[in-house]
Write a structure and sequence with these properties.
4 strands, alpha+beta
């Protein structure tokens, strides 16, 4: 099965949260309500340094995906 790069998710236990799931490496879920990120990968010390610089980019891409999806619902 081929998955999209980003998936929009929600859960009634978290009514204010908007979750974006990133399905490619590095896999993660971001809660756009507070920009909290949960990683599904294990990282070594070298990876964590690179990841720290890339996290901002991942948040931006997830937010752009969300904005695109919402605009499509509004049309």
């Amino acid at each position: 099965m081929e998955l999209p790069k980003f998936i929009l998710g929600d859960n009634t236990d978290y009514p204010d949260a908007i979750f974006i799931i990133h399905t490619e490496f590095p896999r993660f879920i971001i809660n756009l309500e507070n920009d909290e990120v949960e990683w599904f990968e294990e990282f070594d010390q070298h990876d964590e340094k690179e990841l720290a610089t890339e996290t901002e980019n991942y948040i931006r891409l997830a937010t752009e995906f969300y904005d695109r999806e919402v605009s499509r619902y509004e049309d």
